[in-house]
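Dear all,

This email documents one entry for the complex benchmark we are building for the journal club exercise. For each entry we list the sequence lines for every component of the assembly. Then comes the predicted three-dimensional structure of the complex as a token string, followed by one or two observations. Please use this as the template for your own entries, and keep the labels exactly as they appear.
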Amino acid sequence: MRVIIIGASAAGLKAACRLRRLRSDAKIIVIEKGEYISYAACGLPYYLSGDINTFDDLRKTPYDLIKDPDYFKAVKDVDVRINTEALKINREDKIILCRSSNDGSEFELEYDNLVIAAGASPVIPDIEGITLPGVNTFTRAEEAIELRKGCESRQIGKVAVIGAGYIGIELTEAFLSLWGIDVTLIEAKTTILPEILDCEMGQAVEKMLQSEGVEIHTGSCCESIIKEGDSLTVKIGKENLLNGFDRVIICTGVRPNSALTTESGIMTGEKGGIIVDEYMRTNDENIYAAGDCVEVKHILTDSTVNIPLGSLANRMGRAVGENIAGVKRKFKPVAGSSIIKAFDWNIGCTGLNINKAIESEYKPGEVWGFFEDKAHYYPEPLPIMIKLIFDLETRKVLGVQAVGEGDIIRRIDSLAALILNSAEIDDIIDFEPAYAPPYGGPIDPLHYLAYTAESVIAERTAILHPESIKSFKNDGAVFLDVRSEGEIETNPLPDNITDKYSIPLHELRSRIKELPVGKDYIVLCQKGMRSYEAALVLKESGINNTAFIGGGMLFANIYKD
Amino acid sequence: MRVIIIGASAAGLKAACRLRRLRSDAKIIVIEKGEYISYAACGLPYYLSGDINTFDDLRKTPYDLIKDPDYFKAVKDVDVRINTEALKINREDKIILCRSSNDGSEFELEYDNLVIAAGASPVIPDIEGITLPGVNTFTRAEEAIELRKGCESRQIGKVAVIGAGYIGIELTEAFLSLWGIDVTLIEAKTTILPEILDCEMGQAVEKMLQSEGVEIHTGSCCESIIKEGDSLTVKIGKENLLNGFDRVIICTGVRPNSALTTESGIMTGEKGGIIVDEYMRTNDENIYAAGDCVEVKHILTDSTVNIPLGSLANRMGRAVGENIAGVKRKFKPVAGSSIIKAFDWNIGCTGLNINKAIESEYKPGEVWGFFEDKAHYYPEPLPIMIKLIFDLETRKVLGVQAVGEGDIIRRIDSLAALILNSAEIDDIIDFEPAYAPPYGGPIDPLHYLAYTAESVIAERTAILHPESIKSFKNDGAVFLDVRSEGEIETNPLPDNITDKYSIPLHELRSRIKELPVGKDYIVLCQKGMRSYEAALVLKESGINNTAFIGGGMLFANIYKD
């Protein structure tokens, strides 16, 4: 058995190693266009920031061995050939035409099975000035090494980051936190992390980044980059000029590397990724694909997704290795879990966001909550703001988004496990997380959100976006604040809310007669729990149309200014 | 509708509040024997330690209101009567005979539905000296308040804690960490947290506690307590006398309060808890039960379990409230998730431990791993030691236990979600946790463990307990250390391993001829991953009988001395 693998990064090498474990007789060759193999690309921002000392740290095993071709030969009996580009796939004869970048020579390799793990490349916008010196992408080792040098030598004082996705935000922190470099973050869409977070959650992240000193321009398309003297100017929108940048980093996403495959008739999908079946096989039965260059099924939609993430690449590669070895291993649909650390915040999600839920023809409902990640009496609790998305008709859990300093990943992972098992709201209610006061209250945030979702589904009350407080107008509805005096003093309502009632929840039952009858009500408290309860108390007393502000004043605070 | 609830703690009050939300017309009376209601009993150890300032902090809402009967009347329209004991249930006439401890008067209450949420009481061993002054249990507010005073006034210098369950360990930390009180922890079973952790995991916790300065006696039954002058002496075993204690705290577990119910013909189970159906209804259709006094189904066994935990009590109470209101709400079987923080360690589990798995007639396999909770190149990773238990025949996931400073709860919760969905090993392989370097490597510890479990099931290699290194003897098997020289130097093998081969993994393929043929092999590395791989490399070269030491030298280190 002769297996050729194109691409010596996570997916390709994992396929190679897994196959070797199962088939000692296979001849396995991995070809790689570049010089560096098997380095932790996800770690590049932390190398840039200085959290990681040398680039080699990113390509070492935990046991301090550099993962170069010699390592793979010795440990895995896998033949990795660097500086070797695949030029053409001849599917009929099962031959790949390759070129060595060492001497420019071309040669052929035969295969019984081929694995395409060619990764993804940065999307480079077609704008004026994109090729100027100082304008870089940030996906390759060489770029990171060069930028780190610029930081260390203090040649970089001000940077524009174009694109507020994961990489853009990680770079923003890297430049600012350790090196003290001024960062201007420019995003064409209207909010931060637009592919992942809904508008109001992205806005929360935006406010946090601003408080850390990042200059942010959202809804701002970069039109051109101009060289002015020693520095670069970025033109956003029609006439807004931002100037004085030493570097402009393009972080406008990546696109699957699939040119080679489409030329040879391998089918690709809407997102440009290679289409594979559940065994990671392409439309050619001898050719598999894995990693950033493929599209996989999403558990909640009929469509496929391209998720360039090292964790998925590893798991896909492993499945490919098993399938080539003859073990039937399905790669199951994904939920799209992701997480990012930015300054002191954790930002995570899994499942669909609201736009994707609507696109997929769900009828999504949304609930929000403001929580703390320890029992309320336990010292030093950290805040978490969570949003749960579910289908109003089927009660299916569609997604969760969480941001804040508190323990986010725990909730993302649990929800991912539930979503991968086609959970409904009731499965969250039955979920049994571990509990002790240092880790949370006896009722988990996910439980609260599920309870709220149930009430929304049953139309016991309605819930409003936390940022709706900004634009609140008394269109005939009564605004009721059920917080205590002290709470109101510390976190006053924004000025736009002039006409309001204020009755603390614990006095609401006895003072309910003070409230006007025959009106709709919008209730607010500190975190959302009491106003939810107040809405239900109002309902008991015959007021049918109530809504409360999800996450309360502490969540809404983010949007106040 | 008239509903009486016995017990004003988590389950009872939750049932009351949930019922109120759904049925504004119900008359709801909660009777409580004691004076304090609705306080966070799980928080008592943190009140003792001083982490929480005043006892009132444990019975306040997050909004600073004391949860007393007035609070429940005002906010929830629930009538809570403290100092009121239920003496007798007359099921025929649906009447409860009560007694007020204020004036000793007796009176009757009628019900349409009754909820028993009477909680649990400490198990008090029947030994000499158990009633001596200074010998306390630790489940009631009054006890915690009195002990805290003793700590603050420095009247307590040395304490014996009898029972190394959750409470015993939390108290141990509370006494030692803030107050600097000497603690001797005495456990009748052979290891720490014996109901929850398997022997080797309990031993790991034991070693940690010892390193914090706790004196520990396991396998030591407390035979009697003797007053000698101003201090107490504890006799363990036949003649071992431990002396000089100012206090002896009995933490030998709790037992469901079900005397009242058994007298009235309500059925209880093997563990002494009230038996309920999936709607939390007892064998009397008008009587429900919830909280620490009931037994519920376990998802992995045919038997029931009694789990006295605030989180479950809340969820059970809520289900009862819904069912009485006429919403059909099942309380699903539990997985038994739990977590405890002890000094810098997190200690958690879900599912069955090995003994319970065997009792339940599974054929359990076990795998171990030593991991870090960040990508290996990311700064300040914290260790996690995890054990996964699964069924060798059905591949069903049976349980997980994890200990260490790293992020434990995330794994416990994910596994709980999977176990509650009847997961097999393959569901862990398909699990999609969120990934970024600050949170872990691209291959999650749970994935590694699932891969190892697969290899064990397929008999590609075998895995040995990490502590097996202590007792290793070269009974014809070759011991192979595949670590690097530097690693061996920092963490040398214990002295009992004299006859061994040492070849770093990356040289194993080229030097395999140095190894004797026709032998069985036991392989060791630093964390378990390389030795697992080495075992598979040996297999490739024709050596069929291999085993590796789970979790490697870093896990085994714990047991060295």
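Observations: The mean pLDDT of chain B is 95. The longest strand of chain B covers residues 364-372.
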